[in-house]
Structure formats: C-alpha cells, structure tokens
Design a protein that fits this description.
By secondary structure, this protein is α/β, with parallel strands linked by helices. It has 16 helices and 18 strands. Strand 3 and strand 4 form a beta hairpin. Bound molecules: flavin-adenine dinucleotide (FAD).
Length: 440
C-alpha cells in the first residue's frame, strides 16, 4: 500500500493550489480526467476561445493578486465590468436593486416603495429563515417580484423559499436608500458589488491560469484518470478504481462533497449517505456561439430574470476581451440551469436565438451565427437546502477529527469563486505544513 502525507482529490484550481502551496511536502493528487484545470479550462475552435461560460477572475485578496501577477507578469488584463439586466424589453444596469431607471414607471414605483417599506421594518431576523425572506427583508417586495425571485428561481431551479440565506450578505448587493432613489430617476455611473472589475489572462482564456499554476508544481505528484471508490475515514485509507490503496495522513478533497460522502465506509456510512441524498445541485447547460460579426450590444453579460425566456444569463466573450474571437467577429455564451441530465438541446438553441434576437444581439440567426455548440456542467450551483447548516456542522466536526480538509466550491459544497479555490488551497496547505489540521 502506498503511503502519502497528503492525498488531494481533484486537480481543479483548489487541488492545484493546495499542491502548489504544499511545495516539496509529500503529496499525491488524484484526478478523474486526463488533464488539470477542472471548471477553469478553455476550449479553442475556429480561432475562438470559449471558457466554461464566463469565468472572470475577481481578486479581492492581495496574496491572490500577487500570485496572479507572478504567473502573468506582462500578459494579464484588468477589465471594468459592463453588466446589464434585460427585462420588460429594456436594458438596465446591474445590480437591478439600485438601477430601475428605464423600466416601466409602475415597476419602478413598486421597487422603490417596496424598498422603503423593507427599510422601515427594522426586524431583520426573518432574513435568516430563507432566501425569499432575506430578499423581502433587505430589498422589499417589488425588487423581489421583478428580479430576485424569478431570476433566482431560474438559476437555482427551486423557489428561494426552499433555500437557506447565509451566503446572501457576501454576494447580493444591499443598496442604500439614496442609491435606490438615484438609480430610479437616472442611470448613475457607479460600480457596486463584489465583482466590479476583474482580471484575465491576455491570451489563451481562463484555462491559462490553472495551467501556469500546474506548471509550477511537480507533475510526478499527479495521478490522472483515477478516482476513489471508497474512503475509510477511520483508518485513513482510500481505495482507487485502479485497485490500489493509499494510506494518507491528510485528505484534501475538492471533489463534490456529495460524491465524497457517498464513498465513506464504516460506521458513519449510513449518516453520510443520508446527507448526500439531501444535497442537491443545479447543472448548467450552456451554448458557445460563434458570430460572423460583433455582438449587437457592447455589454459584457446580461441577467435575464423573466420566466418567458429560458436562459438565465447571456454573455459575450469577445466584448469582454476581444482576442477571444477572430478580428471582426463576436462570441457569446448562453446559460440555462436544470436538474439532472438534459435532452433539450434543440429547444435551448431555438429559445436562445429568440432571446438574442429580442435583445438585438443578433438580427438574423442564419446571417449572424457561424456555429453553436452545446456543453454541460454537471455540478454548477449548489442548492442551499433547509438542513444545510446542520448537515455541514456534522460534516465539519467528523471530517475535522479525521484529517479531512474540504476545499473549493464543490468540495466545501457552497457558492464561491475561483479566488476562493486558490485561497482554500493556500490556507489548507499552511495548516498541514504547520502541523495543525486534526489529530491522527
Ligand atoms: C456557470 C459557472 C460560472 C462561473 N463563473 C465564475 C466566474 O466568473 N468567476 C469565478 O471566480 N468563478 C466562477 N465560477 C466558479 C468557479 O468555476 C469555481 O469556483 C472553481 O472553478 C472551483 O474550482 P475547484 O478546483 O474547487 O473545482 P473544479 O474546477 O470542479 O475541480 C474539481 C476537480 O475534481 C475532479 N473530480 C471530480 N470528481 C472526482 C472524483 N470522483 N475523483 C477524482 N477527481 C474528481 C474534476 O474532474 C475537477 O478537475 C463559475 C462556476 C460556474 C458553474
């Protein structure tokens, strides 16, 4: 049996970052596919570069900005976000809650009046009950009705009443009254939210980021085309589908937590399987669209809250970073979420063309579109079910006692971003190297 100080599951950004930050310390990365990068890989076709929908790098932490600058000393770009909402047949600025200018007057009135009413109601304790209550408590009925509820119902495939709300404070902008009023009577030029600007490799797509980080690690520490089939958390032994067993001191997992729980053997297995069965996730079907000419609107990405349109978001790679398409051409991504396997490619294409035409991004699909490819991300958006906190507390206690560290968006079973995957890897490596991280 092989012995390893640290076994890392998954070679996406979180796994690679862990390996990078562990440096020369004894470790092995197990990856089911034949390449590193996970969701941060880019596809190249006919001179176009497509990421797995928009993957724009928001770097709030200095150490991550420094790492990115070190990897891309003179070939990185920083881009100011140009984001819109498309609803009621018009474009408004992001975020919806503080930019209702341009919507029909009755809609603006409902949004502003609802916000004022919510502001007056100082008891915010109900916001903790669920995502719907959070929207009602902090944004009010009008904004909930015209954006938050329909948009998030599409994105997560469940009504916000079915979702916990702990993540909202970080990710959903809470405007002030003066911002809401100013944004109702004029289109102000201000940037709100955690992602007002972002970083990106000058060439090659977002896939260059994990690729360069991977190149700074030792390729001999990776085992590709292998996956775990059982995890004995008490004896700290993992069995691989190659039949091999590996004994570890620390296990760092970036694979979907639901899958890891299903692999647990021993006395905790029944509880782990019960928790895994409660965990739900929305899959993302997306279209890569190559245009014969530039997109008919200069915006970066667009939120589509209305139920009458199937996709929840549209973006333009080439508007954001022109080298992602050949000169004089444009490229788009269109996103749609669903649960489980998806068999409606033709319908998604038709509906996307209808939406893009209504938005003025294309005029005539025959004339404007070169090719469309359908792709699917099986694990896209974690749905924060009601038992989420209780389950996560049990997992954290158990895994904490058995040297298991969860990293990355799916490993931790949460909503976060590429930057968090990098930070998770760094912090976990630090813990391991400093001898913390659970008794043996
Ligand atoms: C639609 C969408 C848009 C996004 N947009 C952005 C954005 O604009 N900006 C941003 O910062 N973030 C964005 N994200 C989030 C970002 O993709 C993630 O935060 C980040 O890629 C997570 O990296 P990771 O290494 O944790 O996971 P992953 O990239 O999923 O890597 C996990 C790795 O584990 C491997 N694996 C899985 N199961 C097994 C198994 N059983 N055995 C062995 N290996 C396994 C996978 O093959 C993969 O390589 C977006 C996510 C989605 C879904």
């Amino acid at each position: 049996m092989r012995e390893k100080g640290t076994l890392i599951l998954g070679a996406g950004l979180a796994g690679i970052s862990t390996a990078y930050h562990l440096g020369g310390s004894d470790h092995l990365v197990i990856e089911k596919s034949d390449h590193p990068g996970g969701l941060c890989t880019s596809e190249h076709k006919g001179g176009f570069t497509f990421d797995q929908t928009g993957h724009w790098l928001h770097l709030a932490r200095e150490e991550n900005r420094a790492l990115f600058a070190d990897l891309f000393p003179d070939d990185r770009v920083r881009i100011e976000r140009k984001t819109h909402i498309f609803s009621h047949g018009v474009y408004t600025l992001y975020p919806f809650q503080s930019n209702t200018y341009g919507l029909p007057p009755q809609v603006v009135r409902e949004c502003v009046a609802g916000f004022v009413k919510a502001l007056r109601d100082t008891d915010k304790s109900r916001a903790r009950e669920n995502f719907h209550e959070w929207c009602m408590a902090y944004l009010g009925e009008g904004i909930a009705k015209h954006f938050m509820i329909p948009y998030n119902s599409k994105l997560y495939t469940v009504h916000p009443k079915e979702m916990a709300s702990h993540w909202c404070d970080r990710y959903v902008p809470k405007p002030t009254l003066s911002e809401v009023i100013e944004g109702a009577v004029t289109a102000p030029d201000r940037k709100v939210g955690y992602n007002a600007s972002f970083h990106y490799p000058a060439r090659g797509g977002i896939g260059e980021f994990p690729k360069r980080l991977f190149e700074r690690t030792d390729a001999a520490n990776y085992l590709f085309n292998a996956r775990p089939t059982a995890v004995d958390i008490e004896r700290r032994i993992i069995t691989l589908d190659t039949g091999e067993q590996v004994r570890y001191r620390h296990l760092v997992s970036s694979i979907p937590l639901r899958d890891l729980l299903d692999l647990v053997t021993g006395p905790f297995a029944p509880t782990a399987k019960e928790m895994a069965a409660r965990m739900q996730i929305a899959s993302v079907s997306y279209l890569n669209i190559a245009l014969k000419r530039p997109a008919g609107h200069p915006g970066h990405w667009f939120y589509i809250p209305e139920e009458g349109f199937m996709p929840y978001r549209v973006g333009s790679f080439s508007n954001i970073h022109p080298p992602l398409a050949p000169a004089g051409r444009g490229s788009l991504y269109v996103e749609y979420t669903h649960r489980g396997p998806f068999s409606g490619t033709d319908k998604l294409m038709e509906e996307s063309i209808r939406l893009l035409t209504a938005m003025g991004i294309i005029v005539d699909d025959e004339e404007d579109i070169d090719f469309i490819d359908h792709r699917c991300i099986e694990n896209g958006y974690v749905i924060f079910h009601r038992e989420y906190f209780d389950d996560m507390a049990v997992v954290s206690d158990l895994f904490g006692r058995h040297g298991i560290h969860l990293v990355g968006r799916y490993g931790r079973w949460t909503y976060n971003a590429m930057e968090d995957a990098v930070s998770d890897g760094r912090e976990t490596a630090k813990k391991i190297l400093s001898g913390q991280g659970g008794p043996l």
